[in-house]
Structures are given as C-alpha cells and as structure tokens.
Specification:
The chain has 278 residues and is α/β, with parallel strands linked by helices. It has 2 domains: 37-116 and 226-271, 3-Layer(aba) Sandwich (D-Maltodextrin-Binding Protein, domain 2); 119-221, D-Maltodextrin-Binding Protein, domain 2. The chain contains 8 helices and 13 strands. The strands form 4 sheets. The protein has a 5-stranded mixed sheet with strand order 9-6-10-5-11. A 3-stranded parallel sheet has the order 2-1-3, sandwiched between helices. A 3-stranded antiparallel sheet has the order 12-4-13. Helix 2 (48-59) links the parallel strand 1 and strand 2 (63-70). Helix 2 (48-59) packs antiparallel against helix 8 (255-264). The chain is globular. Keywords: Lipoprotein, Membrane, Palmitate, Signal. It is found in: Membrane. Belongs to the nlpA lipoprotein family. A lipid is attached at residue 29 (S-diacylglycerol cysteine).
Length: 278
Amino acid sequence: MEKMQKFNKIGKILLVVCAAVSLLVIAGCGNKNANETTFKVGIYGSDDRIWKPLANKLKKQGINLKLVEFNDYNTPNKALESGELDINAFQNYHFMRDWNKANKGNVVAIGDTYIAPQRIYSNKIKRLSQLKSGDKVSIPSDATNEDRGLRVLQQAGLIKLNNASLHTVKDVTENKKNLKLTPLDAAQTAHSLTDVSAAVVNNDVAQDANLKPEPAIYKEQINKESKPYVNIIATTKSKKNNKTYKKVVKAYQTKFIAKKIKEVYNGSTYAAWNYNFN
C-alpha cells in the first residue's frame, strides 16, 4: 500500500514537471513568433529569383517576406491600396505616376531597385535596316510602356514623335517605312514574334519568355533621361515611413542583390541605386 502511494506521488510529480516543460516550450514558440513580422510583397515574373534570396537573409532579422507573384501590370497597385499587399516591386517611377493619376492612387516609392532597358527583338530579321515598308511592329499597350516603346523606336531612328508627355501611336509624326505599330498587352509582345517583323519587349517579359539580350536587334540607350524608368519598391503614402519597410530597402540595395540582378537577367539589367546616368 505504501509503495502504491509512493508511485502515485511520483506520478503526480512527473505530470506537474511535464506540464511545466510543455508550457515553457509553448511559451518559447510563442515568443519566437511574436518577434517575427510577416509582410506581403507583390512581384512580377522572374524577380522571384531576386526576392527569394533576399527573403532568406531578412528572415534572420525576424522579417518574414511572403512573395505574391503577378503576371500583369494592372493588379499589383490595386492589391497594394486594398491592403492585400504591404509593398510591391514591379513598376518604375513613370508607371507609378501615371497609375496614380489615372486611379487617384496614393502609391509612393521608398527605394530604387534596377533599370532595365527595353529591347527590340525579331525572329525574321537580323538588323533594323532590314525592316520593310508596311512591316508590323508590336509594342506594349499600357500607357507608360507604350510611350516608352515609341520613344525607343524613335531613338532607333524608325519614327518621329510630337512633343506629347505621354505618347500613343497617334503621336507619331513621321513613319517613313509606314510600319504598322500594334499595341499589345506587355506580356504578349514576346509571343507576338511569330506574327510580327519586330517587337519592343520589356526586359522582365523577355526574361520570362527566355529571350536572351544578345540577339536583340536594338537596345534602349540608358542616360539621364532614363531616370523615370528606374524600377522601385513601393508602398502607400500612409506607410512610407514604416521602419521595417526601410530595412527591406536597405537589405535590397546591397552588393549581394546587385550581383543577383546581374545573374538572373544575364547582365541585361543594372542595379539602379548606384548607377551613373550621365
């Protein structure tokens, strides 16, 4: 009987100890989660290969980035303003300003990422001079990239534009080869190469379509006038001073990410935060 009572006492003590240990483990886990903050980041296409390594580094600082991938240029800012995202990284300054104006938006830039020249590609010709009268040339159709694509065609000597601040095909004043300029959704420009003589393609779209930069028949020249086309990390105006967001920007603007940008985009894209635009 005495032995039985001793066993009961020992059993009760073990139960108390186990319960205490369990509480400590749970508390420890709770503290770990409490110190980790999760933020949703909207990105486009191939940029996941830049942001995933960055997310791994930030996780050590207690910042957990959840990457949300988009395949169009229209949704990420809407998701930002609705609160579905905390920050996004897909657009340039020019696009952001135009989007805010058209949508009465409050999106603001909090840091530069990279500058990516547009390129003219073709499956049918090797040089711009081989374009014939009446040939079709596709360009991105969203307002910002249509304007930029037309400027690239002008830079290449194929057309001339008026002095509008945001060009459309209606603003072409000279088109000696009578090129048929066809605006398409930006993501479709690369796929249009089977149907057109040439296409102006955004760099991220080219990357996703496995178009290498070397075969391009023309590359946009980057100079001081290219600054509006620097890509950015953005958030809403009310959150622009968020300290954690600033930590994300600081972690992005490093030699590690600059090297990663060069690797992912095969040398076709340049880190913008220390780029010399002269």
